[in-house]
Design goal:
The chain has about 200 residues and is of the alpha/beta class. The protein has one domain: Rossmann fold (3-Layer(aba) Sandwich), CATH 3.40.50.720. The protein is built from 8 helices and 10 strands.
Length: about 200
């Protein structure tokens, strides 16, 4: 699959490396095409760096891993270029209770948007295993077809599956869930080597 990464920081960069290792073609959409660190890293994993709009056009799937506050403007700048695209939203943007402004902006652009990869640290994407257990990933979104494709990409990272919380109306729950991980890891000083798993009888 041709996957475009917008936001190649810890989350986006780790997923780019994982998907490249799984055999996918990776494009990095960047505003600054002359950033030497990004170019060197991309060359090292065999990815291509190109303007964001061009990278989106070429991608079968798009991962948005920018700061959450940038997503609304990003969606506006890309306009119809996102229409019909599988867009994985790995960001968190605190809005009024029960809302997810960034995700809503992506969805309104016509994208088949799925919230995923947002509720854990990048370390758990780099290594999903805790001894003999595998951390769980969670997702939400209104398109069943899009979520089926996301499941395969989640498995390519090393997760067993993605637990589906439901449709677009459940996306804000995942953003809140991310705050649980952040609170435990940072403010409760448990450290970033923690992850969630679902137990079921």
């Amino acid at each position: 699959m041709n996957i475009t990464i917008i936001g190649a920081g810890n989350i986006g960069g780790t997923l780019a490396e994982k998907w490249k290792a799984a055999g996918h073609d990776i494009r990095i959409g960047a505003r600054n095409l002359g950033d030497e660190e990004t170019l060197k890293w991309a060359q090292g994993i065999g990815a291509r760096v190109m303007p964001i709009a061009e990278a989106v056009k070429a991608g079968d799937a798009v991962l948005v891993a920018t700061p959450g506050k940038a997503v609304v403007d990003l969606a506006a700048s890309l306009g119809s270029a996102l229409a019909g695209k599988l867009v994985m939203d790995a960001t968190n943007m605190a809005g009024p209770l029960g809302t997810a402004p960034g995700f809503d902006a992506l969805r309104k652009s016509g994208a088949d948007a799925v919230k995923v990869f947002n509720c854990t640290g990048w370390e758990n994407l780099a290594d999903v295993r805790y001894g003999d257990q595998v951390a769980d990933m969670f997702m939400a979104g209104g398109s069943e077809a899009a979520k089926a494709r996301v499941r395969e990409l989640v498995k390519d990272v090393g997760f067993t599956d993605a637990i589906d919380l439901g449709g677009d109306d459940k996306v804000h729950i995942l953003e809140g869930f991310a705050l649980v991980w952040i609170d435990l890891a940072i403010f409760q000083k448990m450290g970033r080597g923690i992850a969630f798993t679902l137990l079921q009888r």
